[in-house]
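anyone else get weird line breaks when pasting these?? whatever heres mine. first is seq + tokens for prot A
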Amino acid sequence: MTPTLRERLAQQALAGRYGLFLGVGGGLAALGLILFVQSLLAGPAIADRAWQLFHVNWIYFSGLSAGGVAFVAVQKISNAKWSGMIIRFAEALVAFLPVSLVGLLLIFTAGYESIYGPMQHALPELQHGKAVWLSHGFMFARLAVGLLALTIAGWMLVWADLKPDMYAVTRAASEERRLRYERWSRGYDQSSATVAAQEDRIHRLAPIYAVLYVYVFTLVAFDAIMALQPHWFSNLLGGWIFMGAFLSAHMLLALLMIYGSAHLGVKDLVSPKQRHDLGKLCFGFTVFWTYLMWAQFLVIWYGNLPEETGFVFARLWGHWLPIGVAVLWGMFIIPFFGLLGVRPKKSKITLGFFATLSLVALWLERYLLVMPSVSPLPGPLFERHEAGPTLLFAGLFLLTYALFGRTFPMISPRLAEITLDRERGHATVAAEFDHEEGPGDYVADELLERRSRPR
């Protein structure tokens, strides 16, 4: 007998093994750890280079993880209906946040002198208040407390959204998973009162996380980037950094959606319309990132104050200039014109290409913001000493995602049904009423069982 849509969603939610992520992530993490340890043992100069790249990658991958959960929070705050099929792919990014906490601890212990040494030598020249603000203990305390609060709030939000789904897929789960899900979803049932209480909890946690995300990543921008060159300051840097991470989370979600829908066997339920919706957000936040970059640059250029222009001049001149040019092309020019039309947003190939390009460019942006402030070298250098921490973080990122995908349902049946129900019947009227979508851009009606109640 053909399973109903709800039964199919429950079955496919548990189909994710993410063996590719697990294997590649484990290999990259092991290789990266070996190279990183070798660099630390190769002498102070080489160790400094390795720790500086560790810092760059900590900023980048922490932003991807926290930004992904921020996407979830925004969907809950806005009561969005379009993202029900793909939202769990973003929620899985919360798994990396505990690793980010460990990375922060390592930065402020073993790696502190290699990263913040030049800044510490400049503290006696600063005003007393600024010197206290940039002191080791105070900086670590506020970043650790902020990131810990963000991690707890992120897990609470994702767990609140997981609980109804673990209850819903219990019957389709294996014996081991069934017992685990019954324990984790204890106290939840499908009564109207329980469902309403759980939704209220989700909608209370979402704005808490969103506010924490903005606050914590503003601190990350100030303490992990701006503090490295303590005489330079920009009030807009915080917004630029957390919005860049938010943009990167959308781009990463596009890739996770393309891979995950095929891996779980639901690519026929992730329609071009859903990709178009995500692509419009990718395009919009690309423009917004550029607006923030230009607003920051224009004020510094017009003011022409040495303590402000030095930071920009060091990154847009000489050996560092090619990195700056690559960031501009990869973060704005190519994605802007590439995603300007409707069709590239709907196509998995083009959307995936521009998402990959944007993610690489954002890593280069983080690299460019950090390295000229801490490196004694006249320009960029990327050898095995820099590759070690980069591979380590990339591997741990894939590993944590795979472990989440093998533990929890990777589709939310209740949210997916809402999304698919909104597509029901659209294919027959799209040609007449939609100017951007056609009949083939929606999930086919024959894949969605009809309900007795009217739409």
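and prot B, same format (seq, then tokens)
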Amino acid sequence: MSVYDVELITDSTCDIPQELINQYGIEVLSHFVIWGEEQYRDRVSISPQEFYERLKTDPRWPTTAAISTPDFVRAFLEAKARGAKQVMAILISSAMSRAFESAQQAAKEVDIPVHLVDAKGPTMSVGWQVLAAARVREAGGKLADMVAAADAVRKRLVQFVLMDSLEYLARGGRIGNAKRWIGTVLQIKPLVSINHENGLVEPAATPRTRQRAIETLYQMFFERLDVTRPLHIAVLHGNALEAAQHLAERIQNEFHPLELLINITGPVLGINTGPGALALCGYNE
């Protein structure tokens, strides 16, 4: 039986570390990675590490399939069966995935109230909103309080993503307003930001070297935050743990955030960002 009146659901692009998912009783639904004739559940039947290694060697290009309406119907009904009275689902940007649309349809087909939140971003843009809602629920808050907490975080979120190449973002079809870079002959390290109002990728900078790109990522990210207030920051990576750890160490030494997480970006997003990608995502209180 559920210990909560409100079941909190998210999708596998959230990139929340597993220990926090377990701690707060968050239900995570998996998207799908399709590789030739094989189909995998994101982070379940294929690990991020396995995915990135294969991405570098397999000549076939993987694709993704979003969580379907029947998948959401099943999850909502299972929440009811566990004793939940309501469901809150915080999902990847509707501008990046059909999952939100599928969840909307599913909500019409079940006899339990479902409140859907469009996170207007991917990875820990989703994750920070989920954690905010989960922590309010843990403290005894109701659905309205959980929704308000997620909304407040979303309004302050900053996310930048650095890629080793534009290839993955372009081939994955999630390039958003950065499409003006397509066809460039420059050997750039594309840096993009997430617009948390429309949920789209926005071009940020085109540094030429990785060292310069990492420095630009760092500077642009912290320019957007009020660093005088408590910070919640996540360092995400495309199987580049050492680089992520170096970034996290620098952040810890310079800004002493209230919360600092490191996690590998899962396969569904990794298709778009590629091996070696680095991202910073966070907000100030």
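btw re prot B: The mean pLDDT is 93. The two ends are 34 Å apart (CA to CA).
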